[in-house]
Automatic annotation (TrEMBL):
Domain Aminoacyl-transfer RNA synthetases class-II family profile residues, every copy: 6-363
Enzyme Commission number, as recorded: 6.1.1.14
InterPro entries, sorted: aa-tRNA-synt_IIb (IPR002314), aa-tRNA-synth_II (IPR006195), aa-tRNA-synth_II/BPL/LPL (IPR045864), Anticodon-bd (IPR004154), Anticodon-bd_dom_sf (IPR036621), Gly-tRNA_synthase/POLG2 (IPR027031), Gly_tRNA_ligase_bac (IPR022961), GlyRS-like_core (IPR033731)
Name of the protein in its database record: Glycine--tRNA ligase
UniProt function note: Catalyzes the attachment of glycine to tRNA(Gly).
UniProt GO cellular component terms: cytosol; extracellular exosome; microvesicle
Coarse class of the protein's main subcellular location: cytoplasm
Gene: glyQS
GO molecular function: ATP binding; bis(5'-nucleosyl)-tetraphosphatase (asymmetrical) activity; glycine-tRNA ligase activity; protein dimerization activity
Gene3D superfamilies in alphabetical order: Anticodon-binding domain (3.40.50.800), Bira Bifunctional Protein, Domain 2 (3.30.930.10)
Amino acid sequence: AADKIDTIVSLSKRRGFVYPCSEIYGGQRAAWDYGPLGVELKENIKRQWWRTMVTSRDDIVGLDSSVILAREVWEASGHVEAFVDPLTECTSCHKRYRADHLEEAYEAKRGRLPENGLADITCPNCGNKGTFTEPKMFNGLLQTFLGPTQDESGRAFLRPETAQGIFVNYKAVEQTSRKKPPFGIAQTGKSFRNEITPGNFIFRTREFEQMEMEFFVKPGEDEQWQEYWMQQRWDWYVGLGLNPDNMRFFEHPKEKLSHYSKRTVDIEYRFNFGGSEFSELEGIANRTDYDLRTHSEKSGTDLSYFDQDANERWFPYVIEPAAGLNRAMLAFLLDAYFEDEAPNAKGKLEKRTVLRLDPRLAPVKAAILPLSRNADLSPKARSLAADLRQYWNCDFDDAGAIGRRYRRQDEIGTPFCITVDFDTLEDDAVTVRSRDTMQQERVSLDQVVGYLAARLPG
Ligand code: ATP
């Protein structure tokens, strides 16, 4: 299972999903860049999220707030004080860890917490036991300076979550969109955390993308809404092809909840990183009225809601499904990866790698393949590709044996390959091959758009 991650890392690099960041300079540790296929896959996931969460609903609107907000926002939200992780260092090999991660890995392996805390734990790097320093709290906010002087007056924070941009715009959005609780505000975008131990490929990085939605509800209705959103979010992953056998809910123990949370339940995926089988994909938190209340107190702007029907004023409670785009991408890739067999040109079965990505997520929707590089076939195929590109991201490939070209498309999850052959010159039809069934169908050229449209949901 751990080698499945390695397989995905190497496929990602080889085919242009994900490259190591700044590799020509030796690389920037635990940072990644998204190549031509990666950016398509990421955009497709984001688009599906936006459709499901925003445009298909009457009760959620979108927002795109700044990455750098007023410093007071992070003081009020509690991040300056409480966005901290316990940092420990191995005194033998000087590797740094998050103390809670070490304990969690111990617990996952042995089914119980270490009795003497860190003293019972062996350093995963050098193998020495009991060599950890007393944990020190370390703030995870990434800092920068605005303006010409690099002093306290210019200190600013890059957002560690998109949520605060939503809370500080709450009143403006409520008034301009004329929504009343229960309603939500959704936002996608980059967030930054000075993670102590980034790693596991794109799972944990210091710069990442979130897809968050804050759903504002009447106090007392929060618990049902949390259940509702847990189910909705679970269904979203399953609907896009994630195998539910590889997913589970994880209920955060009360004593470990974040400073703002009444209840947090994660959707976890079986990433199978060394040490832990399941890891967090998305968190669904009941943030109570903590954020709107503290921002009201600290800013002096009343963010409570006047409920005309009941003639009373209250602070909405907030249910927050917070997803990580990069983690979702990794889960979809791992889950879609299969090795099976396909017949080669001579009809002999050969191993093939296939990404069974949902067609809505597949980076390339169709590949147009002239049977051979030929003065008659290529122009016909190019003109078909140009037509199809008006609707979908398509590949054109006329290099090498047709079987090898099918394999290349299977490996990146392209749902349809369209072959232009010598019969095409006679019958104005092409062969459409499906990635999953490997069935081939003859489709007339003027029907190809309709054929694909019926099989490629938006
Ligand atoms: P973890 O416990 O793994 O550090 P978290 O509980 O701090 O995660 P949240 O604050 O709930 O994470 O953030 C919401 C989502 O944002 C996470 O479920 C995850 O998908 C994503 N996320 C958070 N931190 C990172 C990171 N460093 N790299 C990539 N994605 C992240």
